[in-house]
Amino acid sequence: MSVAVKTAEFPVLNPQKAGFFRFRRIKDDYLITNDFGRHRVLTASEFKSFVEGSLDEASPLCGQLARDGFIRDRMDFDALTAVWRTRNRFLWQGPSLHIVVVTLRCNHRCLYCQANSVPMKDKSSDMSLETARKVVDRIFQSPNPAITIEFQGGEPLANWPAVEFIVDYAREKNQKAGKSLWINLVTNLSLLDDAKLKFLLKHQVNFCTSIDGPGELHNKNRLFVGGDSHADASRWFKKIHKKTAGKPYRIDALLTVTRFSLPRYKEIVDEYAGLGMRGIFLRSLSQLGLARETWAQIGYEPDEFLEFYRKALDYIIALNKRKNFFEQTARLFLTKILGDVDPNFLDLRSPCGAGVGQIAYNFDGGIYTCDEGRMFSRMGDESFRIGSVDGGSYGECVGHPVVRAISVASTLDNQVQCSKCAYKPYCGVCPVKCYGEQGDIVGRMPSNSNCRIQMGIQDMLFERLQDPKIEKIFRKWIRERVEPVLYQR
Questions:
Q1: DSSP three-state, residue 192
Q2: CB atoms closer than 10 angstroms to residue 15
Q3: Rounded to an integer, what is the distance from CA 366 to the centroid of its chain?
Q4: Are 317 and 473 in contact (CB under 8 A)?
Q5: Bond from prior residue into 276 cis (ω within 30 degrees of 0)
Q6: pLDDT per position as a tens digit, 68-80
Q7: Confidence of residue 8 (pLDDT cuts 50, 70, 90)
C-alpha cells in the first residue's frame, strides 16, 4: 500500500529578483539574512512574495529590502561593500590579543579548571624575566595598532616579578611604538595586596576576576585551599571598583556556569547586580583541562544550558525596567545584528582569532594559536604550537601551517552547515573546542555543542526582537561601545 506524503509548499525562487539570502523560521515568520549582515523578519505571505519576486516595488517593504541588499536588481554595491568592509575590518589588522601565561601555579582547585594548574610550591612553571622580555618584544611585532596584553595562569600574581616586569617594559616600549595598549590581569585576587594594587592602578591595568554567584555556589565551584574564595574576591572587587570609578580602566568579573548553577539563575544575576556590575556574561562550560575529568559532576547538555540562559535572559530583561543591566553574550550578538560594527569577539568571527587575532605565550616561551590551544599542550598535545620566542619570527608564527589550517576550518563559508545557516553573519566556530569535543578542527554541525548553544541563543534574541519594548532595551545595551578588552574571548 502506498502512502501519500504531504509536503509543505515552498515558493518558487525568482533568481532575477531575489538577491542572495539565507532563511530560518522564527515561530510563524521567516528571518532572512545576507552576507552584509542585514536581516529582515517577514510574514509568511511577505516571504512568499519576496522569494517569487512579486513584491510591489513601490512598497516600503521592497524599499527596505533593496537598501539591505535583498533585491537583486536594486543593489547599491558601493554602500553594501563599505558595510562589509567595516564589519570585517579585523581581517587586515593582525593579532590584537596577546595572552601571557606567567605561571601555572595556583592556590585554587576549580572544578572546571582548563589550565591544569600546579601547586604553589612548584616554581618550575614560572616565566623567567629573560623570557618575559622576549615575549613583549614579540608582541610588539604585531602590526595591529591596538594591543591587549592579558595575564593568565595559573594565578598570575603568584609570579609577581614577571607581571611587574612585563607591565613596565610594555609601557616603556609603547612610548616609541605609540600603539593603543591595554593590559588585563585575570586573577582570583587572593594574592593581591595594597602595594601590588597601587602599582597596577598606576599603570592602568584592567582587572578580571571570577565570581560564580553567591558565596556557597562560588566556593563549591572554586575550591580555595587558603580560605573563602568568594569573600576574598568580593572584598577586592568592591575596593577596585570604587577606585576605578570613572576611569578608562576597571574591574570586571566572569561567570562560569556549572550544573550547580542551572537552578540558581536569579541569585547569580542578583549577585552581579548587587556588586554594581554593568552586566553579566553567561558562559557555558568547555570540556578542556580538569573539566574533562569532572564533566559527569559539573557538565550538562546544550538544551539544559539554553533553558538556564532563557530564564536568566528574561529575568535580566525584566530587571531593565529598574536599571540598565546587560547580558554580554546577547550584547555581542546584538551588536552584530542591529549594527554594522563587529565587536571583535574572537570566537564569534569568521575566521576565528586563533593566530590571526590572538596569540598565547606559555611560561617557557612557547607560542600557541590561542589560550585554548595552549591548554592542549598541558595534556601532552602540541597540535596548536606555532613557535617560540627563542627562535623564528613573528611572520613565521602567523603564517604557520597550523594557523592556516585553523583559519580555513573556522571560515564559515567552508563549513557545510554554517555556510547555509541564517545566523552565519553573526556567528563563529572555535576549531580548538571542536577538536577537543569531536576530534577534528572541522566541527560537525549542528551536533556540536557550541553550535547548538549559539543557534539557540540567537533564536531567543530574534524572537524577543519582535517585541518593540524588548527591542528598545536591546538597542540600549549596544549604544555603549562594546569594549576591546576583557570580553574578546
A1: coil
A2: 9
A3: 24
A4: yes
A5: no
A6: 999 999 999 999 9
A7: low
Q: Name the residue among 40, 58, 159, 48 with its Cα closest to residue 102.
A: 159
15-66: pLDDT as tens digits: 999 999 999 999 999 999 999 999 999 999 999 999 999 999 999 999 999 9
Strand order in the sheet with 358-361: 282-283, 251-256, 206-210, 180-186, 146-152, 97-101, 358-361, 366-368, 385-388
Match 604550537 to its residue by C-alpha cell. 385
Q: Is the peptide bond before 145 cis (omega within 30 degrees of 0)?
A: no
Q: How far apart are CA 319 and CA 310, in angstroms?
A: 14
Cell numbers found for residue 11 = 515558493
What cell was used for 59? 512598497
Q: Which residue has the cell 616600549?
A: 173
- How many Cα atoms sit within 13 Å of 366 on the Cβ side? 19
Instruction: For residue 134, give the nearest of 175, 100, 178, 95 by alpha carbon.
Output: 100
Q: Residue 205: which of 163, 177, 235, 233 has the closest Cα?
A: 163
DSSP codes, 135-171: HHHHHTT---SEEEEEEESS-GGGGHHHHHHHHHHHH
Hey, what domains does the chain have and what are their CATH numbers?
22-87 (no CATH), 96-489 (3.20.20.70)
Q: Per-residue pLDDT tens for 434-460?
A: 999 999 999 999 899 999 999 999 999
Q: How far is CA 298 from CA 58, 123, 229, 377, in A?
A: 57, 30, 19, 23
Task: Classify residue 209 by burial, with Cβ atoms within 10 Å: 0-12, 13-18, 19+.
Answer: buried
